[in-house]
Amino acid sequence: MKKITIAIDGHSSTGKSTMAKQLAKALGYIYVDTGAMYRAITLYAIQKGYIGQDIDKLDLLISDLPSIHLEFRYNTSLGYSEIYLNEVNVENKIRTLQVSSFVSQVSVIKEVRHKLVKLQKEMGAKKGLVMDGRDIGTVVFPDAQLKIFMTASMEIRATRRYKELLDRGADISYEEVLENVQQRDYLDSNREVSPLKKADDAVVLDNSYLSPEEQFQKALSLAQDRINTP
Ligand code: DC
Question: How many domains does the chain have?
Fold first, then answer.
C-alpha cells in the first residue's frame, strides 16, 4: 500500500499528539512529536543553567548544539516512542510547566530550529510517518500528502492542559496555565523564524466541540482518502 507523510500542526494543547499517535497506530506509521524535541533542548538549557529567571546565556546553548544528542526510542509496553536526551529518557521531565515557560525562548533560536528541522527531515525520508508540531506542513514537509491544522478555543485548551498537569500531581492554578497558553500562542505565531501558520493546503480541524473519537475518525478518513488517491 502507498505510504504517505502526514503533517499535523496547530496551537498548543489542541490534542495534536494524542491524535497523531492514534493515527500512526491505526496506519502502522512512525509517530514523531517535534514539540518533545524543542522541549528536550529547553530542558538541557535549564539543567546547564543557560536559561532561567533573569538568566540568559543562550549563546552557550548554541555552542553546545553540535554535541546534544536527541533520539526517539520505541517503548513496546507503552506502544509509542520516548525521547532521549544524551542517552537519558526525559519523556516526563520535559512536560513540566517550567519547561513550557521557557520553550518559546528556545524555539525562536534559528540554530536550534536548523538542527531540529534537519533531524526531522531525515526521520521522514521514507514516508509512512505522522509528525506533529508548528511548522511541519510549512517548513519540514511542505510536500506532505496530508496536512491537518488543529485548533480549539483558548479556554478549552487551557482547561485540558490544566487537568493534564493536575493528573501529573502539579501544584498550579488554572490562571497560570491559561496565561502560559496565551503567551505561547502569541510567541509561536509572531516569531520571525518559522512562525506557526496554517499551510494553504492544510485541512482545519477545530476540536472545541469534537470528542477525541470524532476527531480521530475525521483524520483517519482524510488519511485513507489520500492513501487511496493514485
Ligand atoms: O507541542 P508542544 O506544546 O509540546 O511544543 C512545545 C513548544 O515547542 C511550543 O511552544 C512551540 C515549540 N515548537 C516549535 O516551535 N516547533 C515545532 N515544530 C514544535 C514545537
Answer: 1
